[in-house]
Amino acid sequence: MDVKMNGNLPKAELHLHIEGTLEPELMFALAERNGIKLPYKDTEAIRAAYQFTNLQSFLDIYYAGAGVLQTSRDFYDLTWAYLERCKADNVVHTEIFFDPQTHTERGIDFETVLEGIDGALSDAKEKLGITSHIIMSFLRHLSEESAMETLEMALPYKDRMIGVGLDSSEAGFPPEMFERVFAKARKAGFIPMAHAGEEGPPEYIHQALELLKVVRIDHGVRAIEDPKLMERLIAERMPLTVCPLSNVKLKVFETLADHNILDMLDQGACVTVNSDDPAYFGGYMNANFEGLVNELGMTETQARRLAANSFEASFLPEAEKKAWMAKALGNGGA
Ligand SMILES: Nc1ncnc2[nH]cnc12
Ligand SMILES: [Zn+2]
């Protein structure tokens, strides 16, 4: 297919960590603004440090980088820069994660973080025509108690967030550890989702479905190792928010040519394309689509189905979902 065509397809992004959109240039600017000394000489040195061997090697650098984010204005600027990238890539709707504990653990108020992110998202609706939702994600390498405290902290702001997620180091931190936190979050009206089957085994996807009662799986690429699980995911049209460039950078797959996203799509799974932490993984939404065309031979039909899936799997109202799906499939003047 014509690679450029991807740019014109309307798309929704459903798996994006706002802290993972911190480009080295902005990291330096914020460090200067906040009087913080970075352990890098320049932006080239930062980019050179982005050689990851697995998820943990990335997370160590990613959590350190987030230290430059201090004020609401910092979170606003970070989010606004990402939204401009959305505009450029024709991402018309985005559902973004933020990790409150990454910030509250170093003394930044929950409200400071949310205020900045939400402010930029509100302005983007008006100025860029981009719709959005916020999902707060618990760090699974921290305790259940810490996640509970975070949930309590979030309750007064419930109306500004649509759901809860579970992220950070996966192996050794199974979803079952957070069963009670998710039960409480669901009761408070948060829609549940979780990272599962990125590095962790298919068993973690089962746990996320059964114990956390998630409506979306983030990543989920290891589901393919368990045919019965794949059957269930396909039958239920359970969305898997897949992140191709991320998976290659973190060595889940050796190259994009080895990725299973199109196999899963062709089997009937509701897979979607997402950029995860684009500042660290080498590209935003369209770069992921382009990689799939160039290295995996994605056809136009497959690209349109992936774009339509992204709206199907979103938390947009049904009528909007349907209208965007028709456009993505080329039935509505895309
Ligand atoms: N790919 C990823 N997996 C788990 N936690 C994350 N936090 C940010 N990106 C992540
Ligand atoms: Zn992620």
TrEMBL record:
Cofactor dependency? Zn(2+)
Cofactor stoichiometry and binding remark? Binds 1 zinc ion per subunit.
- What EC number is given for this enzyme? 3.5.4.2
**Positions bound to substrate:** 277
Q: Which residues bind Zn(2+)?
A: 15, 17, 195, 276
Feature type site, description Important for catalytic activity: 219
Name the domain of life: Bacteria
Return the InterPro entries for the record.
A_deaminase_dom, ADE, Ado/ade_deaminase, Metal_Hydrolase
Enzyme class of the recorded protein, top EC level: hydrolase
Q: Where's the Adenosine deaminase domain?
A: 10-324
Active-site residues are 198
Query: Which catalysed reactions does the entry list for this protein?
Result: adenine + H2O + H(+) = hypoxanthine + NH4(+)
Keyword annotations from UniProtKB, A to Z: Hydrolase, Metal-binding, Nucleotide metabolism, Zinc
* Functional note: Catalyzes the hydrolytic deamination of adenine to hypoxanthine. Plays an important role in the purine salvage pathway and in nitrogen catabolism.
Instruction: Report the family membership.
Output: Belongs to the metallo-dependent hydrolases superfamily. Adenosine and AMP deaminases family. Adenine deaminase type 2 subfamily.
Q: What is this protein called?
A: Adenine deaminase
